[in-house]
From TrEMBL:
Class of the enzyme per the UniProt entry, highest EC level: oxidoreductase
BP terms from Gene Ontology: respiratory electron transport chain
Keyword hit for Calcium: no
Descriptive protein name: D-lactate dehydrogenase
Domain of life: Bacteria
A GO molecular-function descriptor: D-lactate dehydrogenase (cytochrome) activity
SUPFAM superfamilies tied to this protein: FAD-binding/transporter-associated domain-like (SSF56176), FAD-linked oxidases, C-terminal domain (SSF55103)
Family to which the UniProt record says this protein belongs: Belongs to the FAD-binding oxidoreductase/transferase type 4 family.
Keyword annotations from UniProtKB, A to Z: FAD, Flavoprotein, Oxidoreductase
Domain FAD-binding PCMH-type: 37-218
Keyword Secreted set for record: no
Organism, scientific name: Blastococcus saxobsidens (strain DD2)
EC number: 1.1.2.4
Position of the signal peptide: none
Amino acid sequence: MTDPGLPGRLRAAVGEAGLVTDPARMGGYLSDWRNAYSGTAAAVVRPVSTDEVAAIVRACRKEGVAVVPQGGNTGLCGGAVPDTSGRQVVLSLDRMRRLRAVDPVNQTITVEAGVVLQAVQEAAAAEGCLFPLSLGSEGSCTIGGNLSTNAGGTGVLRYGTMRDLTLGLEVVLPDGRIWNGLRGLRKDNTGYDLKHLFIGAEGTLGLVTAAVLKLFPAVRSRATAWVAVGSAQAAVDLFGIVRALCGDRLTAFEIMSRQSVDFVLRHGTGARDLFGSVHFWYVLVELSDTLPDARLDGLLEAALAEAFDRDVAGDAVVASGSAQVAALWALREGISEAQNFEGPSLKHDVTVPISSIPAFVERTDKALRAALPGIRIVTYGHIGDGNLHYNLSKPVDSDDDTFRNLAEELARMVYDATSSFGGSISAEHGLGQSKRDVIADYKDGLELELMRSLKHLLDPRGLMNPGKVLPAW
């Protein structure tokens, strides 16, 4: 750190308890959970209030020091990791964990950015309500991080992304001013809806410190099924059948390739194959309702019967209790962790129109297998909103470094195919630093120009999470 005045100003802002400069204590803040991205920092600051965040931002701005916001640090694209210069300050929101207000009548909850997602779910449940965002990392990811990447998860089909679940924000701007937009209104037609500038911006336009989130009536009945299908097209056909019959009771519709399930069966504790024969694809379907006895099992069984009549489904089991429901979800949610046991994992989070999923999978699988024989393609995701986690593992017994060296080439193949189907190279993980440079090849030039203009307007000195989202400018 070149300016000796900055440590003093940071200490004045957060106190000794909120300032970390010891390299050993900073370690956990300087790399992501997969150790895929790492950096160094001048300091880590851990404020407990919005005023402290504003003071930190003003101090760093005065010294020309960049600020890297960080929540639960569970991202997959390096968006919350500092660079290697050693001059950036990591601003962790992990001490800002207050539940400021719950309004069951207005169906809103106001929370600070460092609150863990699971804590929001539990606070909503205590009031007889539901906060529907659900992710595999919900026990450690934070609301600030969810907002910064516009997180989606398994409930998007019915409830939408964080953009849809957010009514108001509190944001510290790059100059240290605080915008208080914490309004719990469904209707507010008084000009530009500024909150949408900051949702999905990954901290590059300002620091979200609190949010007003939507709540929903609690779910009182569910029906969950594990269905085997012969192809991605059959999965899409099954989605159409269930959606037509069950309407908005359809909460989740998850697809998994056999390779994905094989990894979980191999490495997941207590995981077991539910069918006597191997199938190419599997689908997890869940219905939910606010009625305590909505007879959803019968509705789901009727949809599956139609699927069997039309030769869309090959086998199916409807969960008979909460333990079996948990076991089915464990098969789905255990994929990412299980894949890590198989060596380097090249992760791609893409979205294409639902109708294009079968053709996308067929074309991209074929191209990748031609480029690298033996490659293991781990495809799974939220087929109900077109989002596929299209991940790659190395061929069996091949070299880790050789596979890593092919990462850019293989990613380009996935992204080119995604683009050819009118899709997006980031569905819910954000761009971070991993996709920062390639986005220019897949996003309209005018869109990038407008994004840069917004960045320049709000953060002309480029001190808010630099090196993320936008290509060099």
